[in-house]
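Much of our argument rests on the idea that a fold can be written as discrete symbols. Part of our work consisted of pairing the sequence of a single chain with a tokenised description of its backbone. No coordinates are needed to read the tokens, only the vocabulary itself. The record that follows shows the chain in one-letter code together with its fold in token form.
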Amino acid sequence: MIIEKIFNSNAIVARDSDDRELVVMGRGIGFKKSAGEMIDETLIEKTFILKQNDASEKFKLLLEDIPTEYVSICYDIIEYAKNMLNTKLNDYIYVTLTDHIYNAIKMFDEGLENPNPLIWEIKKFYPKEFQIGLKALEFIEDELNKKLPDDEAGNIALHLINAQINSSFNKVENVAEQTKKIHDILNIVMYTYGITLDEKSISYERFITHLRFFFQRLNKKEQLKEVDDYLFKKVKTKYKKAYDCMLKIEKYLETELSNEEKLYLTLHIQRVTQT
């Protein structure tokens, strides 16, 4: 493995025998070294292989400004998240989360608060990601001796959610907006029916999952597979209250939904209100 660039004593860019570019970290790995020299591979502690070129370039820029201990902590958080969620995360998470945590700690050191107005919704709709966020706060406290507030667990969770469903850079604000809309849609359903939804029911869980993917489709302008027109008319007539509720949601979203989206939203509303 050959050194291409040295950021500091603990972080370098290298190229391996397969001609892949890697960011490599380890205590003293770049100390008294120069580009073109071989790496002492026994010093390697963490290796970043970012397949997206744009993410790789931004990550390298980040390393020039952010202390390596922050990068190392975020690496551990991301690896932990991958294992717990059992899913792939977009490469940009290494950029966005590292940058976020670095700035969050700077604000913490300056005595500034960064409250998360969606903390309740995140706990409710994304419990796995929020628990990982809480674990991340433990990592930070163990390594840096800084106890960040639980609101930061919510912010970290948003980055993890974003890394699962978005392929573009810096879209955490979209996830926050979607989370608020899900909350508002649930309120529309409860207000229409005058009920409290059973958050432990399978129907509720399926409805939340449907809404999460529903917003992804809207953002990507994707369409569900076309449904039989007869089925749509039958559901519209049979579940009139659920259909009327769906129309309120369509009005709230200020967008014209396809018959397919209308059908599935109506069916989910019907199920979640009958459990």
